[in-house]
Structure formats: structure tokens, C-alpha cells
Records
---
Amino acid sequence: MKYLVTGGAGFIGSNLCRRLLLEGNSVVCLDDLSTGKFSNISELQTDSSFEFVNHDLTKPFFPDSIDGIFNLACPASPVHYQYNPIRTLKMGTLAMYNVLGMAAKFNVPILQASTSEVYGDPEQHPQSESYWGNVNPIGPRACYDEGKRVAESLCIAYKEHSGVSIRIARIFNTYGPFMDVNDGRVVSNFCVQALSKKPLTIYGSGEQTRSFCYIDDLVTGLILLMNSKLEVPVNLGNPDEFTMIELANKIIEISGISSGYVLNELPVDDPQRRCPNIDLARSKLGWSPSVPLSEGLIHTLGWFKERLNE
Ligand code: UDP
């Protein structure tokens, strides 16, 4: 199969490209390198089944022929998506018309990388796909959250109106190798801070929770979803829930380096609790994560250690 992976030079995208190639597929990796990094995919350039295209998806793209699209193009860390909120909203709107139009033209399935952020600061716990969410439409996270929400609406509209075969993965917090040192998210911040012997920056009280999925588990889920016939949103995440203090302590314990914490202000609209209900993925895809946080953090710390020594 020949897949188009948009955002293919990003953290999740580059891991997905590698796995698709390993499984014998061809990959066209599209990225404008605004947050993705060429170094994430540079070693794939020697593979004749891999092609990199530097393109901004808010402008139309016309590939030769493809058998499926993984649409991952969007800044995803709060620091990055809030840097230029207009551009982030364009990825949820303009770029969506372009990729969905492509899926319609080639009559191929498209998997949309949606997010747990569609649930906002959730009032239901854990979050199941039937929950409509609690999103502030005018807050600092709105450019991402509402962009991803309208992107889901566009997928449904193209399915209903144009018969496009859609998959919607609601991706919860994910971590692992190929995360950027300057990504700004909690796992990368804590790992880089610990390895640099700097205090870990805990926002707010540190009692807020997240559920962290190791990248290899997530990529398995994305491919299973693409190969399924499920045309409804599906949560993909690890249901093991941790407070940020617990996460900090794990990273200190595994790295063996402790330089303490500093408490910073909690960002506006920061969700207090987040944990996926993955019953749907379990029952329809036979998927559940297998890598516990402690094991995933060992690989992730190893990845950041190498980056910091370069
Ligand atoms: N966070 C933190 N320290 C950091 C970065 C983030 O305590 O250096 C907290 C943040 O306030 C949030 C959680 O970690 O409650 C996860 O934040 P992240 O930016 O990784 O992703 P989010 O799930 O909020 O999109």
C-alpha cells in the first residue's frame, strides 16, 4: 500500500512512517517542517519506498496516486499551537478541505489525528467517545481544541455528503523517542530538565492528571484503526492515570537525578483530569496499550540523553 502521511516529520508522524515502511508499505511523507524536523526522517531517505515532500497543507497538494491518508499535520504541543493560533485554526479548516478533497478524488480512506482536547476540561471521567466535551471556545487552547473539533465535523460532512471513508483517532497524551527537546510538553520538559540537572517545572499544584501512551502502542492503534471499517471517533490512549507530581517522581527515580521542583503558574484552561475510556478500541480493534509508563520512560530518557549529548 502507498500511504500519504501528512505531518510525517513530526513526533507521531515520523514514528508512523517508520512502522509503515517496516511493514512493507510505501510512504509519501508531507511536512512543511514548521514544527516537524527533517532529522526525524532523514535516515528514511535512503529507502526507495519513502519520499519526502516539503509542503504547506493549507495549500492544495496533488499526489500521483495513493491508497490511504494519515492526516497528522498540525502543531500539537500547547506552546507550539498557541504560538500562531490563526495558523493552527487553518490546519483544522483549510488543510482539512485539501486532504478530504484528496481522499474524495482518489476514493481512499483518511485517518484524522484528532485529540483528547475535543473533550476540553472534561466533566465526565474517564472520557468515552459519546461525551461531547467542555471546551472554552475563546480561551488560549481554543485554536487547537475547536480546530480539531471542526476537523472532525468536516470528516463527518465529507463522509455523509461525498462518501469519503473516514477514521477518527482521538489521541491522548503520547510520548517517546523522536519527541523534540523543545517540544514544551510535560514528558519532554521533565526528561530534559532532569537530564540537565535543572529543577522540574510543575505547573499549578501538580495534582492535575494525564494518561500517557507510549508511541509504539499508539502507532499500532493508528494502523489497526486505518485497517478497520470503524467510521466513528475512537479513543487511543493509555488508561493508566498519573498526577504531574507522580510523573515527576517517576522521572527522577528512573533517571537517578534529582534537582528538585519549581512550582509555576497553571496555564489558563489546563484540563484537571484526563483519562481515556478505551472500551471501543479494545472491543472493535482488539487494541490496548502494552508498554507501562516506567518502561516507556526508560526509552524516552535514553532518546533525550542522546539528543543532549549531540
Ligand atoms: N505541565 C507541567 N510542567 C511542564 C509542562 C506541562 O506541569 O513543564 C503540565 C500542564 O500544565 C498539564 C500537563 O502537564 O497539566 C500536560 O501538559 P502538556 O503540555 O504535556 O499537554 P496537554 O495535555 O496539556 O495538552
---
Amino acid sequence: MSFKPLRKAVFPVAGLGTRFLPATKAMPKEMLTVVDKPLIQYAVEEALEAGIEQIIFVTGRGKGALEDHFDVSFELEATMRARGKSMAAIDGIRQKPGSPVYVRQQEPLGLGHAVWCARDIVGDEPFAIILPDELMVGAPGFMAQMVKEYQRLGGNFIGALEVPAEETDKYGIITPGAIDGRVTEVKAVVEKPAKGTAASNLMTPGRYILQPEVMRILDNPVTGAGGEIQLTDAMAQLIGKQPFHGYTFDGQRFDCGDKAGYVQANLALALARDDIGPAVREFARGLLN
Ligand code: G1P
């Protein structure tokens, strides 16, 4: 089967990052590094690997470092070149002319509202959404795995990962239907269900491939969990009208919106590196003994 190709990805990056203060007082939380790479770069690389051509950032005040990160760094590059230094670490970060596109979310009204701010750039095409504070490590990456299934089945896809039952009130939770390998039919989604009311322990971990009709639902937003306009509520309205699939990623998830998850990501990715892994491993062993 063939479906409209997936070319665009939306990155909601307007959030204030209050959970990481003071680190994020003057720096976007998406610039927090795991080892030596900012979270946003992991997210963009995941999208590019999946064949995405147009990167769309939904940004806000104080997020200028994100724009600079994907641009030319003239002084840095000129100086490195003059000194004969290797450019390998910054090769390929700068995107093709005209990408990324930046749109502003003027007020923090929720994830649904942030995504809706990109409606004119998304247009009448399917689009991906990646939440950069969910770091997904796998080969291929989460989005590439999900795109493969999208090309087979079409419709809408959302990530579906198991979490412990006591954490279901923190996430969008799926009511699962038929299961086919890593693909699960999504019968309903609820944003942050109250403790003890979750339909399952399958959460949506910030990876989506959605059809553009979701934007028409967000044209008339409703206030949901936490007093915010929730993407989950808009998706819920599409279920039944369009196919909705959950995809269970083959790889590792780090919740870098959480301090413990962020430290775990740094440790795991440092240990996996050839250059610093051995030194970190030896230090960690000593620390734990
Ligand atoms: C958002 C989404 C939620 C999703 C979560 C993943 O919640 O609204 O559905 O499960 O990201 O991290 P937030 O973390 O912004 O509260």
C-alpha cells in the first residue's frame, strides 16, 4: 500500500523546563547535553534517520540557542579551520537552507496548542512529532522503526511503551486492542488518568505520526488534564474515524524530563562510548563499592 509520504516533523520546544532549574534559567532545556550532544540534536538526528526532510520547531522566547545550534557558527568554524582542527564533531548539524522552520507558541497552553501552532507549515500532510526530552536509543531509531510500520499500514501511529502501574498518571495512556507484533490497535487514549483508573500501563512516549485532520480538531480546542490543551484529547477524537496504531519501540527509553532519567541517560551513553566508556566504568565501579 502507498500513503502520503511523511516529510515533516514538529518538535515542540517552547516549554520552560522548570523541572531542571537552575540549569534551565537562561538555557533551553532542549540544550541539556547527554555526554556531549544536546537533547534536541538526538531528536533531530532521529527524525533525519527516518527520512524526515522538514524540521519544524515550535519555539518561544529565550530559545535562541536552539536556532544557533542548527545554524552556521562562523567564528567557531573559521577559527577551527585556521587552527587545522577536525570539524567532525560539528559536521552535519547545520541543516539544508530553509530548515529548520521556527514558529512561535506565544503562551504555554499545552502540547496540543504547541502542535497546532505549526498547522500552516504542516499543511495537508501527515507529520511526525518528537518530544526531545524523551531520549530514545536504538538502531534503527524509534521514528525510523515507526515509519517502517506506517509505510505498511498508514493511518496514525503513536509510541506505546509499558511503564509501572504507579506511573500511569504521568502520561497519555492507551486502551489497547488487537496486537500484531510490535503494533497494537489503539482503541482510546486518555491524558494522565487519575491513579487507579488507567486502562493499561501502555504510555505514549512522545513519538507520533499523525494525519493532518488532527489540526482541524485542534482548531476548536478543549481544556484537558492540568488545565492544558492536550494533544492526547485531540487524537482521542480521531480514533474510530481513522486507524490508530501503537508502536512498541525496540530500544531503550530515557525520560530526560526527569532528573534521575537524565543522569541515567548520561551514564548509559557514556558507558557505551569507546573513548570515555572504560574510564567511566572504572570510576562507577569504585563509587559503588
Ligand atoms: C506529554 C504528553 C503525554 C506523553 C508524555 C511523554 O506529557 O502530553 O501524553 O505521555 O508527554 O513524555 P508531559 O510530559 O508534557 O506532561
